[in-house]
Design brief:
Layout lengths: L13 H13 L1 E4 L5 H16 L4 E2 L18 E4 L7 H21 L5 E9 L5 E4 L9 E8 L13 E4 L4 E4 L6 E5 L4 E4 L6 E9 L2
Antiparallel strand pairs: 1-9, 2-3, 3-4, 4-11, 5-10, 6-9, 6-11, 7-8, 7-10
Helix pairs in contact: 2-3
Length: about 210
């Protein structure tokens, strides 16, 4: 499948330009400084508070109107984030997401006009088998986005790596706190390896109508 991206010269934001270059050349981008460490801590605290309030539910496969829970495929628990009812840390998160979305639309004409994001917790021993982020009856997801919210002392032996399956080989991403991964939803299959301790993130998609 051909890439979504046809880059147009535009150098207003160096970070976003690097993301576009990555997406154009290899269909994914890995960023270490998209959010500040303070923003990551604040989002982690928000996630954990909502978890303590028992707001999460078991994840499912399929789109949100046709969900089926299958623990043999994925074992995370999630909480969808309603942008109309968010706290200060979530507002900062969406401000940056919206800024990136607008930049991509201006420079690459992607036509992204919707988004959906959720908090995700992978309890010890859980995983998500290899899959693609689009559905047979819904191909609106264009870009997948993951931001890891794990503790600062996260170690590789904790597991939970994200594996992107490329045309030639694999890209293994360790979920260190603050690391962001963006990739083309309709192209790259991926999986989450089993975790040996609780793994935290925000995951979402930039979509067309």
């Amino acid at each position: 499948m051909e890439s979504l991206f046809e880059s147009i010269p535009f150098s207003e934001n160096p970070l976003y330009e690097n993301i576009i270059t990555d997406l154009t050349s290899k269909q994914y981008s890995i960023i270490d400084n998209f959010f500040t460490s303070e923003e990551v801590v604040s989002l982690r605290q928000s996630l954990l508070q909502k978890y303590e309030e028992d707001a999460f539910k078991k994840s499912a496969i399929g789109n949100r109107t046709n969900e089926v829970i299958k623990k043999a495929i994925r074992g995370d628990i999630i909480l969808w984030i309603d942008e109309s009812n968010i706290n200060a840390s979530e507002q900062l998160f969406f401000n940056k997401i919206n800024d990136l979305k607008d930049y991509l639309n201006r420079t690459c004409f992607l036509g992204i006009n919707q988004k959906e994001f959720h908090y995700a917790i992978y309890p010890e021993g859980t995983f998500y088998k290899r899959h693609l982020d689009t559905f047979q009856n819904d191909d609106r997801r264009k870009l997948s986005f993951v931001c890891y919210l794990n503790e600062e002392d996260w170690k590789p032996e904790n597991g939970g790596e994200l594996v992107l399956y490329l045309e030639k080989g694999e890209e293994v991403v360790y979920p260190f706190p603050g690391k962001v991964v963006i990739f083309e939803s309709q192209i790259l299959e991926h999986e989450v390896k089993p975790v040996n301790t609780q793994r935290l993130s925000i995951t979402g998609w930039l979509k067309t109508r």
